[in-house]
Amino acid sequence: MAFTKSALAAIKGPRYLAIIELIQQAMIEGELKENERLPTHRSLAKLLGVTVGTITRAYTEAENKGLVRGEVGRGTYVIPNEFTSPSSLEFLQNTSGKQNYVPSYNDSDSGLNSAGFTYDCTSLAPTSNNGLGLIREALVNSATEEAIDLLFSHSYSQVDDEVRAQFVKLLAMSNIHTSSENLVLTSGAQHALSIIIAGLSEPGDIILTEQLSYPGIQATASRLHRRQVIGIEMDDQGIIPEQLELVCARYKPRFLLTVPNLHNPTGITVPESRREEIVAVARKYDLIIIEDDVYCHLTETPPKAYVSMAPDMTCYVSSMTKSIASGLRTGTIVAPEEYVRRLSATLQSSIWMIAPLMARVNSHLIESGQLPKIFKEERIEIAKRQNLARDIFKDFICSANLEAPYLWLTLPESWTSVEFTEAAQSLDIGVLPSWIFAINKDIAPEAVRITLTGISDINILKQTLESLAELLQ
Ligand SMILES: Cc1ncc(COP(=O)(O)O)c(C=O)c1O
Q1: Of 70, 149, 334, 391, which has the highest C-beta tally within 10 A?
Q2: 188 lines ligand 1 (CB under 6 A)
Q3: How far apart are CA 468 and CA 464, in angstroms?
Q4: 46: which DSSP letter?
Q5: Rounded percentage of the chain residues whose pLDDT exceeds 90
Q6: Ligand 1 centroid to 235 CA: how many Å?
Q7: Which of 186, 294, 324 for mutating ligand 1's site (highest number of atoms within 8 Å of CB)?
Q8: How remote is the CA of residue 191 from the centroid of ligand 1, in Å?
Q9: In the CATH scheme, what is the code of domain 88-130+372-472?
Q10: 214 Cβ closer than 6 Å to some ligand 1 atom
Q11: Is pLDDT of 214 > 60?
């Protein structure tokens, strides 16, 4: 037990700082979990043999450090932070001795092609090599004198109007009609989310998101920027508006960060009627909607986007990393003009400017006019894989959208999510357990995400899925 007089006595220095150290230790050892309530001031003072004033000072300082939050009349709660549950990275490093299984820093979804598993059902790289020829051509076309000159310029204007105009065209392919004035170019969707959070929110702001959520959201919002993230309960149409309203009334959050198309990990595409309800709640409570539409090109006929329903209060994020190639790191934010200035300044503070050459390569891809064909081929390939998986897992409960590059498999009662992940790993198959996606880890369902695009040969994918299904029997 971390909170004892002897544990406190063992730490030198001012008592309130020593108490913060005890709190951190309790977090590291799992005695204090994310969102758990700390002991009351009075009871902790008694346990440690100090005054209530010392505890108040320790809790206030811990709050300033972003470790806990005080709620008037309710108590003090643990905020997810670097001392609480291990990050997905640590988890992935620690399981089954798979030390090589290291995703890029805060995103268990990218860069997993190099994962240590022979059969990789974790990676979200696009399947096909459909775009290969086109990418080659775009690289060659980008190597102009003018583009090379750009490498020697140190202008923060980033990219010229022509390139920006191409991105406006790309957005129009997904029915997002905007202009250059509302556009910020970033180094991918993850970077876009990061600069929106850094640029528009303040320390202490609460960000709402789906209770099951792409781990990069937790990584950037709580681990990198130390904002508090609260997960909203979902049903098979996404966030439940009544739950959203309850949380808004109680916590006065400022942001809703949501993935309405092919939600990662469940594959849910939120229907338009549900989106209208969400917008109504967001308006009532003055929320900014951060619409993460990184899968936009994989949805053939997406419902109306939040940015089209409520452009004045939405920051819309997308990129081509999930539809063509993970390395094409140019993302877009569409935002009201008043935010664009702040976001551009934040982008400058983070990386000065996006790599102009990469923006040009993307711009050539758009200009080629071939992208709709490539997006379509990718959708066909994914549907083929989803149908295969549907057949193999027909006796089990899957949330499987034909357009999503992954499926969310609810495990039979005999399995926990972590045990199944470990059993799959012992067959050299990588899948991701539910808690990696859960905002509130205590209510993570017994489920796993199985990605269908990480194994390029469909016959090998079939054998891999059959092995997983056999495990389930
Ligand atoms: C929902 C979601 N948003 C953002 C990203 C990051 O996208 P990018 O590779 O463009 O940074 C991912 C990656 O898996 C994702 O699933």
Answers
A1: 334
A2: yes
A3: 6
A4: H
A5: 66
A6: 22
A7: 294
A8: 9
A9: 3.90.1150.10
A10: yes
A11: yes
| Domain covering 5-78, topology | Arc Repressor Mutant, subunit A (1.10.10)
What residue segments make up the domains of the chain, in order of their start? 5-78, 88-130+372-472, 144-369
Q: What is the pLDDT of residues 246-276, one digit of tens each?
A: 999 988 999 999 999 999 999 999 999 999 9
393-418 burial, b at 16+ Cβ within 10 Å, e below that, comes to beeeebbbbebbbbbbbebeeebebb
Pocket flag, ligand 1, residue 103 (CB < 6 Å): no
* pLDDT single digits (tens) 10-42: 888 899 999 998 998 888 777 888 888 999 999
The alpha carbon of 240 is separated from its chain's Cα centroid by a whole number of angstroms, namely 19
Say how many Å lie between the CA of residue 147 and the centre of ligand 1: 28
- Both tokens of 298, joined, read 């994989």
Query: Measured at the alpha carbon of residue 249, what is the angle toward residues 245 and 253, in degrees to the nearest 5?
Result: 90
Strand partners for 398: 409
**Is any ligand 1 atom within 6 A of the Cβ of residue 321?**
yes
Question: Are 5-78 and 88-130+372-472 the same fold in CATH?
Answer: no
For the record, the structure tokens of 360 come out as 């040009």
Position 97 confidence tier, pLDDT thresholds 50, 70, 90: very low
User: pLDDT tens digits for 324-372?
Assistant: 988 899 999 999 999 999 999 999 999 988 988 889 899 999 999 999 9
To the question of domain 144-369 being in CATH 3.40.640.10, the answer is: yes
CA of 294 to the centre of ligand 1 (A): 6
